[in-house]
């Protein structure tokens, strides 16, 4: 049975950009169902056209308002926009808290905008594990731009750089750990810096700090130096300049075509391999055995290196199960 023969109407609906089909497809993908995997296989040849913009930064930086304004700026050119807002998981329902989505309410009636909230479901890095797959659905549905807004992230949570074509890091002068954030991975993943709430005291000082940190980095003549854009997202000030900076990075990236795309696909393949391998391992092991092995490691009865080597051998030698199609 081919992937298309499972639900041709749903695949056709996604490719036609039908909002209900897109919503259903994204739910299947987010729930990691076998039908969702089949759908992704079917639509994958029709992806690769959308431009993925990642927006990240510490909590309270105004990312949602910035995304709302940026969406409006892009829509002004008549381009279709998909927004994936990654929210914390609700402790009551297990779904997304929806705080980010509420702030984008003015776009709900715009047929050219599709907004989806995703719960992190316990994953780290500021994204849900299936965020990249959800972006594929919006790409296949014909959206020209997909904006991915991460949960407010800490210093080491930088997975957005491996998911998006351009990473926008948002900082605010009032964030007490802004300087600390600059010292870690967030500083290194930025393609564009945004100093939001730039009408507040300390904005110019933060711009100078970012510039000083950039000056410490050795760059070649063709290497991109992230611009620093000052915005006031609540009023829309600086949003046009942010859009221009993103476009400039796009132009620069075209000088080395395929490098960012290939890196993104390499990251996703490794992530899928890791996840699918653990799924396969849990299927072939007797119930509770993985926990028993972990207990033995904790008791120093076996070292984790020997245990992992033995588990890999068992996973490789185990026959394929009937559920292996999901991999």
Please specify the SSE layout and strand pairing.
Elements: H1 3-6, H2 8-15, H3 19-30, H4 34-43, E1 51-56, H5 63-75, E2 81-87, H6 99-102, E3 113-119, H7 131-140, E4 145-149, E5 166-171, H8 178-182, H9 185-189, E6 192-195, H10 203-215, E7 228-230, H11 239-253, H12 259-284, H13 289-298, H14 304-317
Helix pairs in contact: 2-3, 3-4, 3-7, 5-11, 12-14
Main attributes?
Rossmann fold; 327 residues; single chain; disordered C terminus; disordered N terminus; alpha/beta; globular; 7 strands; 3 domains; seven-stranded parallel beta sheet
Strand content: 5-15%
CATH homologous superfamily of the largest domain - what is it?
A: P-loop containing nucleotide triphosphate hydrolases
Distance between the termini: 16 Å
Q: Report Rg.
A: 22 Å
CATH level 3 topology of the largest domain: Rossmann fold
State the CATH class of the largest domain: Alpha Beta
CATH architecture grouping of the largest domain = 3-Layer(aba) Sandwich
Question: In one word, what is the shape?
Answer: globular
Q: What's the mean pLDDT score?
A: 83
Largest sheet: 7 strands, parallel
Structural class: alpha/beta
- Structure annotation, total helices: 14
Q: Can you give a write-up of this model?
A:
46% of the residues lie in helices and 12% in strands. By secondary structure, it is an alpha/beta fold. The chain has three domains: 1-46, no CATH class; 48-256, Rossmann fold, CATH 3.40.50; 263-326, no CATH class. The chain has a seven-stranded parallel beta sheet, with helices on both faces. Helix 5 crosses helix 11 (239-253).
């Amino acid at each position: 049975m081919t992937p298309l023969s499972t639900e041709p109407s749903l695949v056709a609906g996604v490719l036609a950009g039908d909002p209900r089909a897109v919503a259903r497809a994204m739910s299947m993908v987010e729930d990691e169902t076998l039908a969702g995997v089949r759908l992704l296989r079917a639509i994958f040849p029709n992806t690769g056209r959308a431009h993925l913009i990642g927006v990240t930064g510490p909590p309270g930086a105004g990312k949602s308002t910035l995304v709302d304004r940026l969406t409006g700026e892009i829509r002004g050119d008549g381009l279709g926009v998909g927004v994936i807002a990654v929210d914390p998981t609700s402790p009551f329902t297990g779904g997304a808290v929806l705080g980010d989505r509420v702030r984008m309410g003015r776009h709900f009636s715009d047929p050219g905008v599709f907004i989806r909230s995703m719960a992190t479901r316990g994953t780290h890095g500021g994204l849900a594990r299936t965020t990249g797959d959800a972006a594929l659905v919006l790409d296949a549905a014909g959206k020209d731009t997909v904006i991915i807004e991460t949960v407010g992230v800490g210093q080491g949570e930088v997975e957005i750089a491996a998911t998006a074509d351009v990473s926008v890091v948002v900082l605010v002068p009032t964030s007490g750990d802004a300087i600390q954030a600059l010292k870690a991975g967030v500083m290194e993943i930025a393609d564009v810096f945004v100093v939001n709430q730039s009408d507040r005291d300390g904005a110019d000082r933060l711009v100078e700090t970012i510039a000083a940190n950039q000056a410490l980095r050795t760059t070649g003549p063709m290497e991109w130096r992230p611009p620093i854009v000052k915005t006031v997202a609540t009023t829309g000030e600086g949003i046009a300049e942010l859009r221009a900076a993103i476009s400039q990075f796009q132009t620069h990236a075209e000088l080395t075509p395929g490098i960012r795309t290939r890196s993104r696909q390499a990251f996703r393949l490794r992530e899928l391999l890791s996840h699918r391998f653990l799924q396969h391992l849990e299927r072939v092991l007797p119930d509770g055995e993985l926990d028993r092995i972990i207990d033995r490691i904790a008791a120093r009865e076996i070292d984790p290196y020997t245990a992992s080597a033995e588990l890999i051998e068992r996973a490789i030698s185990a026959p394929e199960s009937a559920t292996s199609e999901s991999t």
